[in-house]
Specification:
By secondary structure, the chain is of the alpha/beta class. It contains 15 helices and eleven strands. Helix 8 links the parallel strand 4 and strand 5. The mean pLDDT is 93.
């Protein structure tokens, strides 16, 4: 399973694991793949501490960091208070009424506003914050890959990363996006089908992957969206990809940051329960269907806010749902592979399972293509 990507990044397996949890990142990296820390919402200080912790765990093995690089001008950026003020009062009233009817205890107005301001500091992505996060990341020799999402990778990101011999990757949801990212000078493309969790496009993986490989014109491509089995890895490689990018798969592992209650929710879900909606961020994304998601999509619900205001507003619901331990009124970004996640496991067991399945799928393919 050695590919150009494994050789250029000096890893053993063409298996990339996106996770907000540093424990997952470390475990996949230790197993020979490449963990990629989802750090977009971290403060620079939190990011620095997380990278240092992973470094100490992986013993010099390379890993990656995923960030968001907004295209807004510095003069247009708002303070957390300004973002909070941009949320109409009727939206807060809509969420409050929904949670009150669900029987969830409320916060005091002071606690609510304090929490939402703190949430705004995390959710409001600015160029200043992105510069600081990138500088923190590139100060560490162990990070060998920076991955960006939500738009064409800016020139300054590519230039800074390449000056430190760090590769740059970008998530894409169409061949058109792939061309733009290739022209921006990225080293790696992640072709993410609509089956994936979180922010996604509308093209299914089996259609998207070969389209992006063609549009990439030699830039290595990782297959993402619905990858949870060894046969998926074989399919991705056969379609011209250099490896796979996984995310939802790790949410049910012991290393995951999710609560026991949320993991049980995922284990009980089927693939059809991973819905495409704009509830979490204001942008299209795939998430677990809950009463909270249904309420926002019901007739009479207010039109969803744009990003990052929708994400900031959601912090109020998250806080109340967390305190009440009532996950009916919260959700989580997850892909359609949730239907394959049926019980407690570990990162090591999942990797072993996929490698065994890959071997079985390859053996089957060899049998059915042996015409002698």
């Amino acid at each position: 399973m050695r590919t150009d990507v494994t050789q250029s990044l000096d890893i053993e397996l063409p298996l990339f694991a996106f996770s907000h949890c540093r424990d997952v990142v470390a475990a996949v990296t230790q197993a020979g793949g490449m963990g990629v820390l989802g750090a977009a919402w971290m403060t620079p200080e939190e990011l620095d501490m997380s990278i240092e912790w992973i470094e100490n765990e992986v013993g010099g093995k390379p890993f990656g960091v995923d960030l968001v690089f907004p295209g807004t001008a510095m003069d247009d950026e708002k303070t957390p208070d300004e973002y909070l003020a941009a949320i109409p009062e009727r939206y807060l009233a809509f969420v409050k009424d929904m949670l009150d009817q669900g029987g969830l205890s409320d916060l005091t107005p002071e606690d609510r506003d304090a929490y939402m301001i703190e949430n705004a500091k995390k959710m409001a992505m600015t160029n200043r914050k992105s510069h600081e996060q990138l500088d923190v990341t590139l100060a560490r020799d162990s990070v060998s890959l920076i991955v960006g999402a939500l738009g064409v990778t800016p020139d300054w990101v590519v230039e800074k990363a390449h000056s430190r011999n760090v590769q740059v990757g970008a998530l894409v949801g169409s061949a058109r996006h792939a061309v733009k990212q290739r022209e921006a000078g990225v080293d790696l493309l992640v072709a993410q089908g609509t089956e994936a969790g979180g922010s996604v496009g509308t093209v299914a993986s089996m259609v998207l992957w070969p389209q992006v490989v063609e549009a990439a014109a030699g830039v290595p491509v990782l297959a993402a969206g619905g990858v949870s089995r060894g046969s998926h890895i074989l399919a991705a490689l056969s379609l011209g990809c250099q490896g796979v990018w996984t995310g939802s798969l790790w949410l049910g592992t012991a290393e995951s940051e999710l609560s026991q209650e949320m993991r049980e929710r995922l284990f009980a879900a089927e693939s059809e329960d991973a819905l495409l909606a704009r509830v979490m961020t204001g942008k299209p994304g795939r998430m677990l269907r809950t009463k909270y998601v249904d309420s926002w999509q019901a007739p009479g619900a207010p039109e969803l806010l744009t990003w990052p205001m929708q994400s900031i507003l959601n912090g109020y619901s998250y806080r109340r749902a967390e305190r009440a331990r009532n996950l009916d009124y919260w959700t989580y970004a997850v892909g359609q592979v949730v239907g394959d996640m049926k019980g407690h496991t570990t990162v090591k067991r999942e990797i072993e399972r996929m490698l065994n399945e890959y071997g079985d799928a390859l053996e089957h393919l060899q049998k059915v293509t042996d015409f002698d």
